[in-house]
Amino acid sequence: MPLSVVIAQVPVVWDVEANLATVRDVLDGTAPGDVVIFPEGMLSGYAEDLSPLDTMDPDGVRLAVAGLAAGNQRHVFLGSLYPDAAGWSNAAVHLSPGREPQIYRKINLAVNERGRLVPGDDLPTFRVGGATAAVQLCREIRFPEQWQHLATAGAAFFAYLTNAANPREPQGVWRSHLISRAAENQRFVLSANIPDPHQHCPSMIVSPRGEVLAELPMGRPGILRHTIDPAESSGWYLGQRRQDVVALAYRRGDHEAEMPRRHSRFPGV
Q1: pTM of whole model > 0.85?
Q2: N or C: which terminal CB in the chain sees fewer CB atoms within 10 Å?
Q3: How does pLDDT run across 182-219, given as a tens digit for each residue?
Q4: Nearest residue to 80 via CA among 100, 97, 58
Q5: Other C-beta atoms within 10 Å of 21: how many?
Q6: Overall average pLDDT of the 13-42 stretch
Q7: Cα distances (Å, whole numbers) of residue 172 to 128, 177, 201
Q8: Whose CA is closest to 44, among 10, 95, 78, 85?
Q9: Cβ–Cβ contacts within 10 Å for residue 63, how many?
C-alpha cells in the first residue's frame, strides 16, 4: 500500500518547548496516516557542543514525547537526545497510532558524543502501516553494514535523521552516500536534515533504484511531500550475495569492543 511521506527540514534549537511548537506546526499540516520525518535532535536540540545537556530537564523531554504520542494519528520519526537510567542517548523516537513510543538509540556515536552519550546496542525495525521501516542517525550513513542488516531484517524503507551542518565536510559526499544506501539495499531512503548555511546532506527521498525522487533546497526551511510504494523494495541484489565468501554477522552489544580508539581531525563526524 502506498505511503504518503512528509520530510520536515526545519530548525532545531536548544529549547524543548520551542522545538515542540515546531513539530506541532508541521504535524498540523499533515493528514492521519502520513509518515512524517524530522531531523536528528529535533525535540531536545543538538549541536557539536553538547554542554546544554548539563541543564536539560530529562522529565521535560519525556513529557514532550508523551504529549506528542497522545492521540497521535501519524507515523512519526523524530530525533532527540533521550534520557534513561544509563544516561542520555542520541535517539530516534517512533510514534505510531495506538502504540507506545518506540526508541532507537544510535549505536555508532560521533566523536563529540563519546563519553557524553550512551550508545545503543540494537538495530530494531518498526511497523509503519502495512510496511516495515528502519531508522539510522547522522554518521551512521558511513556504516553500510548496519543498513544491509536492517534491509535483510525486512525493512522496506529507511528513515534517515541527521543534523549535518559541518563546514569541514566536502559537498556532495553525503548525498552520494544516501543514493548508495538506497541502491545497494534496494530500499527507499527518506532523509531529513536541518536547514543551515553549512548543511552538507540534503533532505530528500531516494528510490530503491537509486533515483532521487524529490529533494529540498539546502540551507533554508522546507517541507517535502511525496508518495512511495514500499512494495517497490526488492531483495534482488541482496539475494545474490556470495555469503560463502563474505558473510555479515550481527552480534548485539559487540559495537563497543569494535569501536576504534582514536580521535578524528574532524570533530563531531
Answers
A1: yes
A2: N
A3: 999 999 999 999 999 999 999 999 999 999 999 999 99
A4: 58
A5: 11
A6: 98
A7: 30, 9, 7
A8: 78
A9: 13
Output 263 or 69, whichever has higher pLDDT.
69
Is residue 257 helix, strand or coil? helix
Residue 93: strand pairing partners? 78, 103
Angle in degrees, CA 44, 42, 217, rounded to 5:
150
> In a 10 Å sphere around its CB, with 0-12 CB exposed, 13-18 middle and 19+ buried, how is residue 35 labelled?
buried
List phi, psi (to 5°) of 10.
Answer: -130, 155
**What distances in angstroms separate CA 261 from CA 140, 151, 246, one per listed residue?**
17, 29, 25
pLDDT of residue 253: 62
Q: Kindly indicate the confidence band of residue 244, based on its pLDDT and cuts at 50, 70 and 90.
A: confident
Grid coordinates belonging to 75: 507515523
